[in-house]
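Weekly structure sync, notes
Attendees: PL (lead), two postdocs, one rotation student
Agenda item 3: pending single-chain targets
PL asked that the sequence for the first pending target be pasted directly into the notes so everyone works from the same version. It is reproduced below exactly as submitted, 181 residues in total.
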Amino acid sequence: MHDWRWIPGWEGFYQAHPSGQIRSVDRKIVDANGKRTRLKKGMILRPQMNGNGFHHHVGLAHGGVTTIYYVHDLVALTFIGQKPPASETRHLNCNHIDNRAENLAYGTRRQNRRDSMRVGVIAQGERHGNSKLTADQVRQIRQEHGSGHIVAKKYGVTRRTIDRIRSGEAWKGQPEIEGRA
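Predicted structure, written out during the meeting:
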């Protein structure tokens, strides 16, 4: 395990590994009055789940102050670099506890959401709990040339839904619609 790198801003205290682990390093600690020094042994930190059970976090401490960080942010900072403004750290496989460097990338919220849809974390199409149509019905709607009002009545949905399906705004990129299922 020779790939440990210093976490920027925490050099001399904490390192990250491409596997997604964070560790402290051996260091000397001076007591409050500055008279005694002791060796604090380094160790791999045990991440905790955040309050919503979604991401791992760890506490990094220096000078008596502990700061909580998401593990994915520390690994990305160490192996990708500084996060661009208005970006977030994406888990490419949408497994939010898989903090390996190769699974992380910076991107926009939209890109992060698209990752979730691509992997199937966010239900779309027939799998969405509020869906009133099947993929076959959507294909039929796209081929029908009647007025939106009549077609909407036939399928029990609103005219706006029909317009959104026909324009490609709704049910876009669905494998079951585009023959990629």
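Discussion points:
- Residues 5-119 form a domain with the Homing Intron 3 (I-Ppo) Encoded Endonuclease; Chain A fold (CATH 3.90.75.20).
- The chain has a mean pLDDT of 84.
Action: rotation student to compare against the earlier draft before next sync.
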